[in-house]
Amino acid sequence: MSPRRPRHFHVAIAGSGFSGIGMAIRLKQEGIEDFVILERAHEVGGVWRDNSYPGCACDVQSHLYSFSFAPNPGWSHAYSPQAEIHAYLRDCANRFGLRPHLRFGHAVLEARWDDGSQCWYIETSEGFFTADVFVSAAGALSDPSIPHLPGLEKFQGKVMHSAQWDHAHALAGRNVAVVGTGASAIQFVPRIQPDVGRLFLLQRTPPWVLPRRDWAIGEWLKWMFQWVPGAQRLARWFIYVVRELSVLAFMNPWLLQLAQRLAMRHLERSVPEPSLRAKLTPDYTMGCKRVLISDDYLPSLTHENVEVITEGIHEIRERSVVLADGTEREIDTLIFGTGFKVQEIPIARHIRGRDGRTLAEAWGESMKAHLGTTVCGFPNFFMLQGPNTGLGHTSVILMIESQIEHVLGALRYLEGRELAAVEPTLEAQTEFVRQIDARMRGTVWNQGGCMSWYLDATGRNSTLWPGSTPAFKRRVERFEPSEYVAIARHTQPVAVSSEQPRRMAHA
Questions:
Q1: Residue 122 near residue 108 (C-beta atoms within 8 A)
Q2: For residue 461, pLDDT beyond 50
Q3: Residues of the chain with pLDDT > 90: what percent?
Q4: Are 144 and 336 in contact (CB under 8 A)?
């Protein structure tokens, strides 16, 4: 990828996880140097910085869960642990020269489009910036979701979420209640089970669990990935093809029967006791919720110090949890493995478009965006990992890279025609959402017989992409001008108040 002629774009990126780092790298490769990355924390990494709970790892193979333009031959395992993924992102920031562009401790408090000056005014916790283009790379997995349990504020023990793990809090010998049985819980439960005194697993819905089959990558294979041309790319391609084929089952639920039988055999081998196994047997079609992979989660639940509880929670008291059947369990630590606020992306409450409404107000109860990337009424605003860009079968990095190319296509269009801004037409956005909803109807995510975080308050699946990543790439990667409104630059100078925020300096 040869650098293009630079243009004096001022770009602000909110977030420094995979989306923000990937966007910044591609901007530099395009010759655009005037950008900042606004990060509320004090290091890059996003979800892989914040989630450091015991056993945290990716459930997509390492060689696919990484940038196509930044391969890493040194992965230690087929499925990378959190620390290695975080190190990979830090290395990308260093290797591609992003450090001068990073602004740590800069939480975005408000971003608003101004028609008069045709730019974004961005207020952060450390000052004001302006930008021609604003890219939200905060993602959907940024703010933990903690359910409203009666009496929680009275609890006198330790409370923490898996995304805010307190490593200073020793669990040895404690009575621990875990709320949630999703992707995080199945990783940390086996790690803490041997240490705790009692572990009460408060389960609302059992997940479908397939074997993980992780393995250590030998030094000879690392050497080959490093020095044999095409070796790592071939490995990535093989993983990609195998995972991509599985989308057929999600789109045609009857094909999931084979995978369900494999999961049931895994459950039967792991949990020989019939009554416990019955509690852990899902009553919905696999794939309706996220399919989980683990070799040690189910066996960890068979130990004497573990109780799987399926009754609902009535209330939390000072030192106990009271169940719906009136029974009580004494606890001194409460851990939430309850995921994130996927359906209410927090940054959406702080982004204001042309009419002054926030993105959250424009959405109402259901997130909608053109190509999952742009929103009518919000000029020069781009979302990475926006509505309907999530996946249930493979690496979301593939989706991010397609969206990044769409953003770059928009910038080239602006440059070539010397325009001020673009935003999608309402017709294009409405038609895209209609097509998404139509394709979603027959999928397991909508027809699998469960309630999941994929669905919003209206019952619409506003989270996932109903198809393959090649289909997303074909639809999204290319910027199509006919789907956008082109906003010309002002021909007359516009007076700017001395009270307006300063324009950000060259990074």
A1: yes
A2: yes
A3: 84
A4: yes
